[in-house]
Sequence to fold (334 residues):
Amino acid sequence: MSASPIFTDLDYEREGRQVGFLNLPYSPHSDAWGVIPVPAAVIRNGDGPTVLLMGGNHGDEYEGPIVLGRLIRDLDPRTIRGRLIFVPAINLPAVRAGNRVSPADGKNMNRTFPGDPLGSPTEQISHYVDSVLFPLADVFMDLHSGGSSLDLIPSVMMQRPDDAALRRRTLDAVLAFNAPLTVVMDTMGERRTSSAAALARGLVVIGSELGSAGAVSLEGLEVCERGVRNVLHHLGVLPADPPAERQPTQLMQIAGADSYVFAPADGLFEPFHRLGTWVEKGQPAGQVNFLDDPGRPPLVAHFRRSGYLFCRRAPGRVERGNGVCVLLNPYEEG
Ligand SMILES: [Zn+2]
Fold:
């Protein structure tokens, strides 16, 4: 495969703090010979693990990018051991637009891995992450939030690695993050995510879901900054004294495809349960109302298993097939 077209003045081997850009040549109607300047930073001090910290995979998820910007400005390079590589707005066109997918090519970055150096802008950026940044890293943190379409409980996330030793190290790292909820998931088997690509390269991969509905959540910001710092302490990149008291966390999983409820028709979805509620298999989850046909009875959607309501669709309007609820169950090893 070809080398990445992305060029940068950042030197990943240099000691101290650098802030700069990963420049992707880009030639739209308005700018024949320009670049997409993806902001990035490197903080290095001696030997130690390399942690890649990414936000803006989806451009409408804000807690991760805000916290990564803070850490770039606030961390004293002399206090760290190892290397931190920050890319707080990785899919910059999507971040500038406040949009889940990139306006440059209409692509959801988290369905483009491992990317393509000769592909569209989003695929070219994914390829750089996969082929240049992942090989430098031991641990990858990809900070997501609910984005425009989801309302959820702040949580740290992991996919389940097949390798038992990597699974243990990943579990230890997500438990160190110490979010209110720790969720093991498989994204309905999706293999084109950043997390799946990083797992394939043997990295410890930590994800998050922090805010809701495309807004900035104060609770999400607190969970995010405390969690990222907790993981850096856990890895020995920051000194050994954890800054905050441990909070109770629940270790949960998205158990399978039957954990999801999808809208059964086009219309307006009316949810029946608050987030955090325990619900039973077969119980109504909500109903689709037909506002332009008030004589028509609403169509009820049911839970297909019992569980704890983790996530709901944020906008009221739905099309048949939209995800409207996601359930969690206690984590089971194996
Ligand atoms: Zn996301």
